[in-house]
Fold:
Amino acid sequence: MESLNCSVAASFTATTRFAWIGSVHGLTCVIVLGALAGAITFPGNVSGAETPLTIAEAQRRAVERSRQTSAQDSAAAASREMAIAAGQLPDPVLKLGIQDLPVDGPDRFSVARDSFTMRQIGVMQEFPRAEKRQLRAQRFERQAEKSLAEKTVAVAAIQRDTALAWLDRYYAEATAAVIAEQASEVKLEIVAAESAYRAGRGSQADVFAAHSTLAALDDRASEFNRRISAAKTVLARWVGEGAEAPLEGKPAVDSIRLDTRALDSDLAHHPQITVLRKQEEIASTEARIAQADKKADWSVEVMYSQRGSSFSNMVSVGVSIPLQWGQRNRQDRELASKLAMADQAKAEREEALRAHIGEVRAMVTEWENGRERMTRYERQLIPLAKERTKASFAAYRGGKSSLTDLLLARRNEIDMRIQALQLEMETARLWAQLNFLFPDESGTPHASAPFPASKDQEKGSK
Structure:
């Protein structure tokens, strides 16, 4: 008889359908029909015309539209151009002048009558040592390599932040869907409670309890709608147009590209550590330049002097050598400064590497714990909450409990499901931070070794 009522109710209008809900069996039928209606209408919220946005596609778009990567390319190109320039000899200096020009007497301001007056033209060329020029070129090459390392840091950060924005929206929408599903069931329970109260089979307290539960769900739905809107705004910052597209392709958060068994050696090549290493190489090169500067550079000058027609023309050749009388307080001090800066860069890199290893190990531990807890929620806590709801519903049908008890059981179930989604989101965010420590350029794992299975997963496999 109950199945017959369900089939008939499916063809009624909403007003007619709710009119006959006066029995507990009617409540069962309406809840089933409501769940079916939700299952039918929910996919309709996603526009079939829009191409779903996967996390990999979002990252690709974000990297393509980023201006930070092109800025680092420009910085590297600028440094390489400077490296070529730094390896060249300085420009020669053209010298023009008049020497021994009389300013009084009968030959005043004459450039031809006095035998000492000469019109001069000459060239001076400085010859820095080849070692210095090579070191200066190497310094700019190291700067170019640093810019490329900073580009790698930028790509990894873009991929990580895009993944986090994608995950925030995904789990906000998933939580909102759970709340909407529960709200639909509570609305049916309100109809049943009001019908039972009018028929004298229920209490007014049950009606108020159902309305209170619905109001609480509406408030939570409003909060998560705000989160969805904020997540879309953040995602649009990275991918631009298309941030409103439906999401697809939930990532597998049970594995990361980082080999935890070789964490120290892997993180030594982390992009941020590479940037610090390049900075250390720059400081070391500058110290070598300061060491080379202790040897003075020579300058050669050739001068042609033209006198009056009655006198011989002359050629002069000269060599200039700086006299480094104060090396102890000048060149030695500069060298000591550059060596100290090199030591500083090395110490900062080593300290950053230690801190990074500690942070990543802590994240890996937290990520592993999250996976274990996710398994516990999936296999124990959520099934137990569902069984409690079923038991409360059966007791309510049998008249052994009130609607309030059923609502409490449902509230416990939704809280458990939302807590599971929150835990999954936190674990997924840790996965994103770990998985994109290195930029994903080729799509192949950074390290092939899988992460050891959690204890709950090992039990499940048995």
